[in-house]
């Protein structure tokens, strides 16, 4: 698609890669949109690392919020976590397996 100069592919443990990106000098408020689709047990950790890197007005999407039911314990904790953050407005969108869409407030 001619976009290879805009894409930075990183391999490794997702949380470690995110921490590396966060520690880079140019990563503060760099992203307009981030999509979390990884191990549900660490969704809160991913969110907390990602939030400072998202621009005000940016979005964080999280997948599989409603289904499969075996993840409900973790996804319920995630939803509670993001909705208790005063810097965020968040809603569950009941399409497919459910998406939590969180807006970072200015």
Percent strand equals: 25-35%
Q: SSE order in H/E notation?
A: HEHEHEE
Structural class: alpha+beta
Q: Uncertain segments of ≥5 residues (pLDDT<50)?
A: none
In angstroms, what separates the terminal alpha carbons? 33 Å
Give me the side-by-side strand order of the main sheet: 1-2-4-3
Average pLDDT for all residues: 94
Number of strands: 4
Instruction: Please work out how many helical segments DSSP would assign.
Output: 3
Helix percentage: 25-40%
The profile of the biggest β sheet is:
4 strands, mixed
Radius of gyration: 14 Å
Shape: globular
Explain the overall architecture:
Helix content is 28%, strand content 26%. It contains 3 helices and 4 strands, in the order αβαβαββ. It has helices at residues 14-23, 43-50, 72-83, and strands at 31-36, 54-63, 88-93, 99-104. Helix 1 (14-23) runs parallel beside helix 2 (43-50). The longest helix has 12 residues, at 72-83. The protein starts with 13 loop residues before the first helix and ends with a strand.
């Amino acid at each position: 698609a001619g976009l290879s100069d805009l894409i930075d592919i990183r391999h490794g443990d997702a949380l470690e890669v995110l921490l590396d990106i966060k520690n880079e000098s140019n990563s503060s408020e760099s992203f307009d949109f981030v999509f979390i689709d990884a191990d549900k047990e660490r969704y809160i950790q991913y969110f907390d690392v990602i939030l400072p890197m998202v621009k005000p007005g940016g979005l964080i999407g999280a997948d599989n919020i409603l289904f499969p039911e075996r993840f409900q314990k973790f996804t319920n904790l995630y939803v509670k976590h993001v909705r208790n953050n005063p810097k965020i407005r968040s809603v569950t969108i009941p399409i497919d397996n459910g998406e939590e869409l969180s807006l970072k407030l200015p």
